[in-house]
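A common beginner's mistake is to predict each chain separately and then try to dock the pieces by hand. The better habit, illustrated here, is to supply every component at once so that their relative placement is modeled jointly.
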Amino acid sequence: MGNDTCDWGYCDHNGPQVWPQKFPIADSGRRQSPIDIETDKCLVVREQPGQNELTILYPTVFPELTVQNSGYGWKVDIPEQLAKQSVLSGGPLAHTYQMAQFHCHWGKHCGVGSEHTVNGKSYAAELHFVHWNTGQFDNPLDAMMSTNGLAVLGVFLDIGEQSNDELDKLLEHITLVRYKGEKCDIAHNVDITKLLPENKSYWTYTGSLTTPPLSESVTWIVFSNPILCTEDQISRFRDMCFVTRDNSLTAALGGQLVENHRHTQPLYDRTVTFVQK
Ligand SMILES: [Zn+2]
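With all components supplied together, the output reads:
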């Protein structure tokens, strides 16, 4: 791995199987994520319009976004002034949340990659739109460490015939952020609502971050309908590297981030609720 010394990652020596050594909550926690969603064990409710409806209000265009290589995948931070206009509330949430960033998880091939699974089935990838509770906390870091601090929208990516245009706007720049720490402005306006499925029925449960520190602070809202993209689009994610450009020459296999998903965790006594739109 060259001399790239990060705490954790997705390689044999620092991957999910060894996270418990540095982050004991990985094993001791009782609300870890992701989980396998067993659809016949879910509590099913129908959303009543006007009564505790899940509200997702985003600006129609997000101009001047920046995509970056976090070393764990690609990530798009939402600038504060745009973030303030993005509202997530209602449904399972007792407070108002605002978007902080979104990122993606994928696998070695398109038969794996999503973090959540549905009746044991994986999707090719999973987008995470991370929101923090502005009703109760002053900043995202405090929120991240607290129960109810975060709400994450999960969107499955399934393989179809047509490439996803909004994803292409990010992929156009992915070679420019190939290495850890690299950043690039996105030359287009991104419409984030197009990265969400049209039918917004969802599963919800209380869980954790799926990356260290694995804090048990997340209300998960995972849409049951995937969005579509092509196999080629997903394969371009795998060209990203978890090493810096300087360290890439000495890294095994060039330090490619061929996968960045955590395996599913025990449900314990939690209930998953399916909210049908
Ligand atoms: Zn994630």
